[in-house]
Design a protein that fits this description.
mainly alpha
Length: 353
């Protein structure tokens, strides 16, 4: 039994590792095509991501929202659903956190905890609502979650540029006022922006793994995600499974926005979460990790390193930083082939059942 589990684990790792190797190989070809040195470029990429305490801290800081958003996608994916609304859930979570930390009376620690809860709740409700629309009206989850991103982004932009706009200092920006220092997540480094949101990520990874492995609801969701027809035959209702999967997925995406506000920005800033594409990179991390919680954390660090390392490449070589994007997209393309093939086979089995 142990040998079979090890074999399955190695087989699960083989495809992502092959995708990473091929992605680096394609990146090397692109570097060679623009006249750069492959060895020097990859050295500068490593230095830009982990070459000092500052760069390592910045890489980890960038990986924090990516990992939380990726965990949200992983929860939905392992349960048999595809949540493309992480960006909107993250944005609403960030806005709910900022307003709670700003206007809730009480000490700073209470505002901090309430802000985290508000961000998680906002993400959960927005995600759950998309699931409810599919159950109640048959609106496809993939479509509704994708379109909900635009609604959430525009609504948050209105709030940041209208009733809750900071009218002092840099008034030209659409942003809320700054939250007080006592309501912020503590810093973990004096040389970088790394903050205690890292512990939120680690706790979330362990919690998701324990939930799927040792709880009855987690087992039901895993079973439903691997074989929906068998799950329904065993008495599992789609409405209940979807509600739980989407709500927990939204909690994690909302937390991604919350920790960005409480640990990094200290306010809600319009477009600050959408322009870096944290949620979409999190989706790529979940696909690369095959929805494994620990794999999502590692994949998020990998993608964050490619992004921060790409900046070092552009500064120190004549190779453009877009090389790192090429590597990312090749990796995701190769992984998506496997995921897409699995998804088509699964839908075909459901149709035949």
């Amino acid at each position: 039994m142990a040998d079979q589990r090890l074999k399955r684990a190695l087989e699960a790792l083989l495809h992502p590792l092959a995708a990473i190797v091929l992605g680096l190989a394609v990146g090397a070809l692109a570097i060679w095509a623009v006249g750069g040195s492959v060895a020097d470029t990859y050295t500068q990429m490593w230095n830009g991501a982990f070459g000092s305490a500052y760069f390592a801290g910045e890489t980890l800081t960038r990986a924090i929202p990516v990992a939380l958003a990726g965990l949200g996608v992983a929860v939905a994916f392992r349960s048999g659903f595809f949540n493309l609304g992480g960006e909107g859930q993250m944005v609403l979570g960030a806005m709910a956190t900022a307003l709670t930390a700003l206007y809730l009376p009480g000490p700073g620690w209470l505002k901090l905890l309430a802000g985290l809860f508000a961000g998680a709740a906002a993400g959960a409700l927005w995600s759950w609502f998309a699931g409810w629309l599919e159950v109640r009206f048959g609106i496809q989850l993939v479509i509704s979650t994708l379109l909900f991103n635009y609604i959430a982004d525009l609504f948050a932009s209105y709030l940041a540029g209208g009733p809750f706009k900071d009218q002092t200092g840099q008034g030209a920006l659409n942003q809320t006022p700054m939250i007080e220092p006592s309501a912020r997540l503590p810093k973990l480094s004096a040389t970088s922006d790394l903050h205690a949101g890292l512990f939120v990520v680690l706790a979330a990874v362990v919690a998701v793994w324990l939930w799927f492995r040792f709880t009855a609801l987690g087992y039901e969701l895993r079973m439903y995600g691997s074989n929906r027809a068998f799950g329904q035959y065993g008495g599992l209702r789609e409405s209940r499974m979807m509600a739980w999967a989407m709500a927990v997925s939204g909690v994690l995406a909302g937390l991604a926005g919350a920790v960005m506000v409480l640990g990094f920005q200290y306010r809600f800033i319009d477009n600050s979460l959408t322009d870096p594409q944290y949620a979409w990179v999190g989706l790529m991390a979940a696909l690369l990790a095959n929805a494994n919680p620990f794999g999502v954390a590692v994949a998020s660090l990998l993608f964050a390193a490619l992004q921060t390392g790409g900046m070092g490449v552009e500064l120190n070589t004549n190779v453009p930083m877009q090389i790192s994007s090429i590597i990312q997209y090749v990796v995701v393309l190769l992984v998506s082939v496997k995921v897409g093939h699995w998804w088509v086979r699964r839908r075909r089995r459901q149709t035949q059942a």
